[in-house]
Amino acid sequence: MTRGGHRRRTEPPAPLERDDLALLALVAQGLTVEAVGRRMLLSERTVRRRLRTVCSALEVATPIEAVVWAVRRDLI
């Protein structure tokens, strides 16, 4: 366990695709779901679904946690 009582992951999370990292980079810039969709030529619904998929793959609860995960690993 780490400080704060959180368990450390014993296996690395699923690797992210280039598009997933681009999505997280736009979220990190503070863009809304609508703005991210416009930039990536996706519907808002698709952006939300992809964010949920990324969060699930990284085993985090929110897109912000996913952004933090990527930033800490110098991926975005």
Q: How does this model look, in words?
A:
With 76 residues, the chain is an all-alpha fold. The protein has one domain (16-72): Arc Repressor Mutant, subunit A (Orthogonal Bundle). The chain is built from 4 helices and no strands. The chain has helices at residues 18-28, 33-40, 44-58, 63-72. The longest helix is centred in the last third of the chain and has 15 residues, at 44-58. It is globular, with a radius of gyration of 13 Å. The model has no long low-confidence stretch (mean pLDDT 89). Residues 13-70 form the HTH luxR-type domain. One of its GO terms (molecular function) is DNA binding. This is HTH luxR-type domain-containing protein. It comes from Mumia zhuanghuii.
Q: Give the CATH class.
A: Mainly Alpha
- CATH homology superfamily name: Winged helix-like DNA-binding domain superfamily/Winged helix DNA-binding domain
Care to count the β-strands? 0
Estimate percent helicity.
55-70%
Assigned CATH architecture: Orthogonal Bundle
Q: What number of structural domains do the residues give?
A: 1
What kind of oligomer do you see? Answer: single chain
Termini distance?
Answer: 27 Å
GO biological process, one term: regulation of DNA-templated transcription
Protein name: HTH luxR-type domain-containing protein
Pfam families: GerE
Domain HTH luxR-type: 13-70
